[in-house]
Amino acid sequence: MKTLDELYARIDALGMEGGWHRKQPSLWPEPRANFLPAQWRYADVKPILEAAGHLVDHELAERRNLTLTNPLPGNGYATVRTLVAAYQSIKPGERALSHRHTPNALRIIVEGRGTYTVVNGTRVEMRPGDVLLTPSWHWHSHEAIGPDECFWVDVLDVPLVHLLEPMFFERHPDRCEPVRENVESCPLAFRWEDSLQRLDAAFGAPADAMSEREIELGEPAMKTVAIHVQRMGEDFASPEHRSTANAVFTVIEGAGRTCIGDKEFAWQRGDVLAVPAWQPYRHRVSKNAHLVRVSDEPVMRAFDWLRQR
Fold first, then answer.
1. pTM for the structure as a whole
2. Is 17 within a domain?
3. Residues 286, 257: contact at Cβ < 8 Å?
4. 118: closest CA among 58, 191, 179?
5. Which residues contact 240 (CB under 8 A, 6 or more apart)?
6. DSSP 3-state assignment of 42?
7. Contact at 8 Å (CB) between 208 and 308?
8. Which DSSP state fits 178?
9. How far, in whole angstroms, is CA 301 from its chain's centroid?
């Protein structure tokens, strides 16, 4: 080998790359803006789910949900790098059978009463504003026994599990797990009225000033997922903020606008926003609002990668 071209040809043939002539850099000064800011409007989604309720039964689809896929070219699933969100519905008289999986999951209830979830044998109602957890490898099912069609937002850490590859999934051998107890409350169900009381009692704005009041559900809610409920009054305007944590926001009530990077989104009840890592964002509220922020902060914190400014 007498020339660089000959040297590089031998290196390439062995599936290697010389660190001094990389085709693509492996290190960069700060996080890249890969995933895109995005919004999904509940007003657009609900009629589709209602129509699907007449066309897609639980024999055809184990869960009737619509995945919120980030518009990043080439992306086929994730909402942000480590999280996926979806809208889901269940009609009166329907039951979603029991299964369990490695990914952690949670549900943010948008509307509808009379739907229950069973998680590892504990049965609890899902009510508007509630946040319900399905931690990794917990059996879970849903059943609607009331008069309402129920709609909610799912958030799971499936993309993180895809990246790390410890994916396991299993259907219950009896189709539905037996109910051991019926409860009004449990550690896996964060009731909306409790969140409101905690927000009322919260002292001052959070350190990042991105809301007027904020509480965390759990410490954190699950090992890979943090959940924060935020309150913002009419005419509230936040500073610009960025974090290495990826986040998905669900609007429980109110209206406003959020700038993420160079895009602005007008939002209202039931809408979902994707705020990818290190994208600067800020809120301006036009109607008293409550938002639920779901993020991968516990992952970033566990490896000392959480940076905010």
1. 0.96
2. no
3. yes
4. 179
5. 280, 281, 282
6. helix
7. yes
8. P
9. 18
Which positions ≥6 away from 284 have C-beta within 8 Å? Answer: 236, 237, 238, 256, 257, 258
201 and 156 belong to one structural domain:
no
- Classified as helix, coil or strand, 47 is helix
Do 214 and 251 share a domain, yes or no? yes
Q: Which of 190, 224, 258 is the last residue of a domain?
A: 190
Cβ contacts of 199 within 8 Å, gap of 6 or more: 213, 214, 215, 229, 231, 290
Q: Which helix (H) or strand (E) holds 132?
A: strand 131-134
Contact (CB, 8 A) for 72 and 35: yes
Q: Which of 190, 219, 244 is the last residue of a domain?
A: 190
Q: Distance (Å, rounded) from C-alpha 57 to C-alpha 46?
A: 16
Q: Which domain holds residue 62?
A: 43-190
**Residue 274 belongs to domain with CATH number:** 2.60.120.10
Same domain, 165 and 204: no
CB 158 within 8 A of CB 225: no
Pairing of strands 115-119, 169-171: unpaired
How confident is the model at residue 21, as a pLDDT? 86
Task: Find all residues with CB under 8 Å of 169, minimum gap 6, and list them.
Answer: 99, 100, 101, 102
For the chain, the residue count is 309
Q: In this structure, are 171 and 287 located in the same domain?
A: no
pLDDT at residue 308 in the model: 96
Other Cβ atoms less than 10 A from the Cβ of 237: the count is 11
Question: Is 79:294 a contact under the CB 8 Å cutoff?
Answer: no
**Beta carbons of 114 and 120 less than 8 angstroms apart:** no
Q: What is the DSSP string of 200-248?
A: HH--S--TT-SSSEEEEESSSSSSS-EEEEEEE-TT-B---B-BSS-EE
Number of compact structural domains in the chain: 2
In this prediction, the residues of the chain whose per-residue pLDDT falls under 50 are none
pLDDT tens digits, one per residue of 227-275:
999 999 999 999 999 999 999 999 999 999 999 999 999 999 999 999 9
Radius of gyration for the alpha carbons in the chain, expressed in angstroms and rounded: 22
Whether residue 280 is contained in a domain is answered as yes
